[in-house]
Amino acid sequence: MKLFRKLLRTGLTVVCSALLAGFVFSGCATSEEPTFTSTPAIEAAATAATSTTAATSTNIAIFDGDSETYRFQVGDLVRVTFSDTPEPLLAHEERIKEDGNITLPLIGAVKALGKRTGELQKEIRDRYVPKYYVRLTVTVSSLPPDLYYYVTGEVRAPGPKSYLSTTTVTKAISAAGGLNEFARKSKIQLTRANGTKVNINWNKAVENSSADPRVFPGDSIFVPKSLW
């Protein structure tokens, strides 16, 4: 009988010890930090980068003359048609000149550079009505243009350049004959078709491709004159 009681106490002790150990390990397991495939900071940075890239690609309008996001550039081929007049009027087609103007019958020079389609339509109509016509509907569109970017300032061959393939600021300037002796290399300015401006340092861009941004059709590169 004494032996039975001793064995019973021993068995209970073993069971209790096992249960206690289970609770201890269970508590330790629940207190561990959760694991991540990537840290929240990295995920946030990646999300922000993706959003920025998407916004940039959305905001840059490249030669979509019928879109209200695009602003006319020098060299764009513009078509102006007229309707709702007693006598039919001929449509007018003209490339935007270096001074930013197109020249229309009766009203003369009209500034087209930097304007959206709707803005140019309104200005042309307001110049014609009511001085020349009581009623007039003006429609402005951009004909399928050649793809150009523009390099101006202190380069050897400034002007519009054909966009033939993927290019960067340094390559675009090289296509314009390269910098001349008066160029201020540290203050080159790239202006996107949507008006966004990017400053480029020539020496850094030559040494590091990450400092040499891509150039797209409709972009403009300006090289200022050195202060010295």
Q: What about the largest sheet? A: 5 strands, mixed
Shape descriptor reads elongated
Sequence of strands across the biggest β-sheet: 7-6-12-9-10
Sheet/helix structural class: alpha+beta
Helix content bin: 25-40%
- Count all strands and give the number: 12
Number of H/I helices: 5
Distance between the termini: 112 Å
Low-pLDDT stretches: 18-66
Q: Compute the gyration radius: what is it?
A: 34 Å
* SSE order: HHEEEEHEEEEHEEHEE
CATH superfamily membership of the domain at 148-223: Outer membrane lipoprotein wza domain like
Mean pLDDT: 76
**How much of the sequence is in beta strands?**
15-25%
CATH architecture of the domain at 148-223: Roll
SSE topology sketch:
Elements: H1 2-31, H2 40-59, E1 77-83, E2 92-95, E3 101-104, E4 108-111, H3 117-128, E5 137-142, E6 148-153, E7 159-162, E8 167-168, H4 169-175, E9 188-191, E10 197-200, H5 202-207, E11 214-215, E12 220-223
Parallel strand pairs: 6-12
Antiparallel strand pairs: 1-2, 1-5, 3-4, 6-7, 8-11, 9-10, 9-12
